[in-house]
Design a protein that fits this description.
The structure is a single chain. This protein is α/β, with parallel strands linked by helices and 349 residues long. It has an 8-stranded parallel barrel, surrounded by 9 helices. Helix 5 links the parallel strand 3 and strand 4. The longest helix is centred in the C-terminal third of the chain and has 23 residues. The protein binds glyceraldehyde-3-phosphate, 1,3-dihydroxyacetonephosphate and zinc ion (ZN). 1,3-dihydroxyacetonephosphate binds next to strand 3 and strand 8.
Length: 349
């Protein structure tokens, strides 16, 4: 199956009332792990690469690996997405490679650190939307700022510093025409999100629900959605790791989000934890081993297990065969003739 438009994938998820995990990749083993899980659970899937991933793996290697995944798995819809694009040029280069979706994260300035103004965010996001839609490519925007810093990307600080304002979310969706809207509800990237199981004082599900009420047809995106399960932390620490006690986003909160308009759920850290734990275990138990396959295979399996669990929990499992891909050129026509709406339905307060 060719790579599919993320807009099509999310529209289908909305019809089916489920969420779709968007899993970060940097190498072949992570791509294979996602495809193993997608095949096992019959799930459509979003594969995403950050700027750091594109640099680490080199654009062409990474994109050819994704193409291989699509060729080897003709029954699975795969959208290839640029995660946290920091500028028009980053998004443009992803589109040139063949990514079917880009995130223009205009919540931060181009340095990926400094929060931008609302007007700056609208302007750069609108520019990406115009360019991408002409080419049939989906756009995710972000309003509000996540906490934490990952690989230099992020404003730092707490996830509570820049929670999304529902009125601004409405105006942003109207003025940009984005296909998917990432909102900040108190989560952060990385393993250290919360110092105890999050309650309503730190994870603002009420804000998410308020935004969904105002924008009932908009596909919402939850970033920083790793659950950081204790069992994955324990494996790392058992085999010589030094993770401090931490909590992530409970799966039941993500499921509440999915019942309230969340269609894309970003997960990276849980997979990083699974991979690291599996590799540490091999190193610890059999220090005489030195063939990378001896630790990369269990690492790949550990990641596939986490991804398959999330696919089932988010509800995308079993939906791979629900639809056939619409060619990206047809998607472009749809944006042009208005059959693919870019104006959100806005409900009164
Ligand atoms: O946005 C955060 C993702 O976990 C990607 O992280 O920028 O370290 O590749 P990265
Ligand atoms: P986590 O760090 O919680 O996995 O978040 C990943 C993410 O939001 C990627 O954009
Ligand atoms: Zn993110």
């Amino acid at each position: 199956m060719p790579l599919v438009s993320m807009r099509q994938l999310l529209d289908e998820a909305a019809k089916g009332g489920y969420g779709v995990g968007a899993f970060n990749v940097n190498d072949m083993e992570q791509i294979q792990a996602i495809m193993m899980a997608a095949k096992q659970t019959k799930s459509p899937v979003i594969v995403q690469a950050s700027r750091g991933a594109r640099q680490f793996a080199e654009d062409l290697y990474l994109f050819k690996l994704i193409q291989a995944a699509a060729e080897l798995n003709p029954d699975i819809p795969i959208a290839m997405h640029q995660d946290h694009g920091n500028s028009f040029d980053t998004c443009k280069s992803a589109i040139a490679l063949g990514y079917t979706s880009v995130m223009m994260d205009g919540s931060l300035k181009e340095d990926g650190k400094t929060p931008s103004t609302f007007e700056e965010n609208v302007e750069v996001t609108r520019k990406v939307v115009d360019y991408a839609h002409e080419r049939g490519v989906t756009v995710e925007g972000e309003i509000g700022v996540l906490g934490g810093v990952e690989d230099g990307h992020g404003a730092g600080g707490s996830g509570l510093d820049h929670i999304t304002d529902p009125d601004q979310a409405v105006e942003f969706a109207e003025r940009t025409g984005v296909d998917a809207l990432a909102i900040a509800i108190g989560t952060s990237h990385g393993a250290y999100k919360f110092t105890k199981k999050p309650d309503g004082s730190v994870l603002k599900m009420d804000i998410l629900i308020a935004i969904h009420k105002r924008l009932p047809n908009t596909h919402l995106v939850m970033h920083g959605s790793s659950s950081v399960p204790k069992d994955l932390q324990d494996v790392i620490n058992k085999y010589g790791g030094k993770l401090k006690e931490t909590w992530g986003v409970p799966v039941e909160e993500i499921q509440l989000g999915i019942r309230n308009g969340v269609r894309k759920v970003n997960v990276d850290t849980d997979n990083r934890l699974a991979i690291t734990g599996a590799i540490r275990k091999v190193f610890w138990e059999t220090p005489e081993k030195f063939d990378p396959r001896d630790y990369l295979k269990p690492a790949r399996e550990a990641m596939a297990k986490v991804v398959a669990e999330r696919m089932t929990e988010f509800g995308q499992a079993g939906h791979a065969g629900d639809y056939s891909p619409i060619a990206i050129t047809e998607i472009a026509k749809g944006y042009k003739d208005g059959t693919l709406s870019t104006q959100p339905l806005v409900a009164a307060k």
